[in-house]
Amino acid sequence: MTQEVTLIATAAMGLEAIVAKEVRQLGYETRVENSRVLFKAPISAIPRCNLWLRTADRVKVLVGEFEARTFDELFEATKALPWENFISEDGQFPVSGKSHKSKLYSVSDCQAIVKKAIVERLRLKYGIASRMPETGSLYKVEVAILKDVVSLTIDTSGIGLHKRGYRVGQGDAPLKETMAAALIMLTNWRPDETFIDPFCGSGTIPIEAALIGQNIAPGFNREFASENWEFIKEKYWEEAFEEAEDLANYDQKLNIIGSDIDHQMINIAKENALEAGLAELISWKQMQVKDLFIREEKGYLVTNPPYGERLSDKKAVSQLYKDLGTIMLNHPRWSVYILTAFKGFEDQFGRKATKKRKLFNGFIEANYYQYFGQR
Ligand SMILES: C[S@@+](CC[C@H](N)C(=O)[O-])C[C@H]1O[C@@H](n2cnc3c(N)ncnc32)[C@H](O)[C@@H]1O
């Protein structure tokens, strides 16, 4: 069995560089492509990446990549890959697919061919004359074809990595946990500095900040599809969980505050924080933004306010941005980070951002406005 695997950390559009940075911090060299970060790593990287990556959507094993323009080519190249190194004799391996700008465009046919090729390979390798049992662990195979290049992967994560396991409630427009983590990681906030989210909704940004602040692995409270796979030794999972426990800094003091106009949201945020085991670490307050009162001379404000998508909301939302802009004018040493899709945000806020970055909040194209505080 090969001791090194090629892994793919999938990333939302615009977050690739941050995901790559996280992967490098775990000690692996990366190659960045659209929506994915590739890296060669020992098998033990599978538990570590699943546990630690805060901004990636999933971790997949790349079984093989090749060009194919005919069904025969797809079948033969798939069958030539060492599937037995990954999928156990009783493994279940459903195949999903996608195809873009390629000769092989019928996704259902490609899925059926890949399935058949893997079955043939495994029956041969495991000496099975009849049907594969498919009663054991789940290995979700994906055939992704882009410009005639086929990538065959197996998903190691299971449900997406944004599901940390703490969200028991949410509002109408919750931010994905991976995006919230990315917003924080794009700042220079350090855990000993004050951190505020005045539109906190269900609390995603303050909760992710607390996890980062105490260096708690975001996957610590959940399970992963590959936890029972035979080719990943149990000790790799044990070591990864032990490493996460060792590196967590539960003594780190934090000053993180989440507030929102809606008291129901504050209740949900509190429940989520409790579920994450962070109840004592974050202060929650029901408050409208214009009542925001800042005591500390410097700190970080990171937030995802309403965007005012409906025409009728635009005026109210403009006023919120004006209110916040006026308050923050009195706090020049604070750094302010705002994710919004509102066109003309800077005019309402009253200042041009130091830096602006295009990000997608789901399918909504937004800008991340960054105002650096005076040193
Ligand atoms: C886009 S949501 C934030 C979602 C949040 N990031 C999450 O993950 O759940 C915007 C939030 O702003 C709150 N809000 C709207 N007007 C407000 C105001 N004037 N002051 C404070 N919060 C307000 C809403 O109640 C809503 O929870």
Polypeptide structure, described:
- The chain has 375 residues and is α/β, with parallel strands linked by helices.
- The protein is elongated.
- 40% of the residues are buried.
- The strands form 2 sheets. It has a 7-stranded mixed beta sheet with strand order 2-3-1-4-7-6-5. Strands 10-9-8-11-12-14-13 form a 7-stranded mixed beta sheet, covered by helices on one side.
- The model has no long low-confidence stretch (mean pLDDT 96).
- The protein contains 10 helices and 14 strands.
- A hairpin with a 2-residue loop joins strand 13 (355-361) and strand 14.
- Helix content is 31%, strand content 23%.
- The chain binds S-adenosylmethionine.
- The site of S-adenosylmethionine (SAM) has 20 residues, from helix 6.
- S-adenosylmethionine is lined by residues 171, 173-175, 198-199, 201-202, 204-205, 260-262, 265, 288-289, 304-306, 320.
